[in-house]
Amino acid sequence: SEQRQWPCSPSPSSPCSLAGAVARWQGEGRVAVWLHVPILQSRFAAAAASQGFAFHHAEQGSSTLTLWLGEGPSRLPGYATHQLGVAGAVLDESTGKVLVVQDRNRTINAWKFPGGLSNPGEDIGDTAVREVFEETGIKSEFKSILSIRQQHKHPGAFGKSDMYIICRLQPSSFSISFCQQECLRCEWMDLNELARTKHTTPITSNVAKLLLYGYREGFDKIDITMREFPAVYTGVFYKLYHRELPESYRNIT
Amino acid sequence: SEQRQWPCSPSPSSPCSLAGAVARWQGEGRVAVWLHVPILQSRFAAAAASQGFAFHHAEQGSSTLTLWLGEGPSRLPGYATHQLGVAGAVLDESTGKVLVVQDRNRTINAWKFPGGLSNPGEDIGDTAVREVFEETGIKSEFKSILSIRQQHKHPGAFGKSDMYIICRLQPSSFSISFCQQECLRCEWMDLNELARTKHTTPITSNVAKLLLYGYREGFDKIDITMREFPAVYTGVFYKLYHRELPESYRNIT
């Protein structure tokens, strides 16, 4: 496929020159064309659209358009399809209480775990710890993943899919100072009560029951734990989450 | 915030009218403006950019721009941050062999589980089953999630993050007919061998060891299982993945 910064010719009224180029690329057997258009030159996006191009994605100061020239439907990769929300189930093991909030704007009268959308480039556990601190003032440490949910055509995700992960966090501070903009209420609630109350969402209720099971019978019953591995080419480390694997199996050779 | 289809005035040379509108919205105390611009009218994206707007996202035939008018940094939600890749670890329990492929274009001489990017709106298990079938011709059924990996600034994701999930699948057909475009090789490999070979990626090796542990000592040791729940408002069902929760805890009231 052909990657280029358009325009080759700076005239805004030059769809014909693009049409000629597209015909040439097709003749050369290229299967796709990618156009990168700076936002201030967006009139070229309109000219390209009239030649069959469509937006692949856009962010901040530029857009990327594609035109599929190959046979059959486009085999070009899509753009990001999911937003990621992360919540923290912060359990004070000394009291059996868990940190819960009621949103100011959304689900009314429903206790939930504090959380929010991950920032670009942010690891799952870091999002949980940051959101818990921003919403409640409680400092905590990531212990494990408890649950993963996937929803599609999510109204809060501009029609994209939503991945929602709840993490188990261990608190290192206990005095609540909650964000009045986001939360109506925030408290340490007995985990037994959260597992039984009707004033919550199905997912919170379910994860509260799971957390209660772990609190009573050992967190090894509920945790999806994290390990770090080097990426194949870059050497950068990444985090892999799975069930605990005994040493005897980790060291098989 | 203000949502509108621009232009109110159809003149391409009307940045001044937008500037006036922005000043009025700011005077009214609005904190943000969203503009939806059809691709053929993209010259208005350029005019809006000269007034401080930037792309929030774009797809196919339209782009969405935002301008933050509130105090401090923008608190507007971002767009989708992750692509989702799903692979299938298909284990034939009767032989102890697992389905592996070598990619034609990427990691050379490394055995991997077949998989690929999820389509928009597709559930995790469905992506695994579809990709396994497309790459290898093997039919299978989703059993559980085995692992989750998150990587950032992913070269194959246009700089966005990548979530990569490996599922455990049970085969219902066994005769391989692999895709020559994508795969160089495809075979049923002894799971003991995959857990030990150097000709694989760290993540595949690790998940092979995990699968071997489950094969020998019970899949309940490794599975992250799926349950369905109704969404709060819509009544649509969604899938929640977590460790097995005993009935006695599910039914707490």
From TrEMBL, chains A, B:
Q: Which Pfam families does its entry note?
A: NUDIX, Nudix_hydro
Enzyme Commission number, as recorded: 3.6.1.-
- Nudix hydrolase domain location is 81-216
GO cellular component assignments: mitochondrion; nucleus
The UniProt keywords, alphabetically, are: Cytoplasm, Hydrolase, Mitochondrion, Nucleus
**Where is this protein found?**
Cytoplasm; Nucleus; Mitochondrion
Signal peptide boundaries:
none
Catalytic EC class? hydrolase
Tell me where it mainly resides: cytoplasm
Enumerate the PROSITE patterns for this protein. Answer: NUDIX, NUDIX_BOX
Q: Provide the GO MF annotations for this entry.
A: ADP-ribose diphosphatase activity; NAD binding; NADH pyrophosphatase activity
Purpose: May contribute to the regulation of cell proliferation.
Subunit structure, briefly? Monomer and homodimer.
> Into which family does the record put it?
Belongs to the Nudix hydrolase family.
Q: What is this protein called?
A: Nucleoside diphosphate-linked moiety X motif 6
Q: Which organism is it from?
A: Herpetotheres cachinnans
> Which lineage?
Eukaryota, Metazoa, Chordata, Craniata, Vertebrata
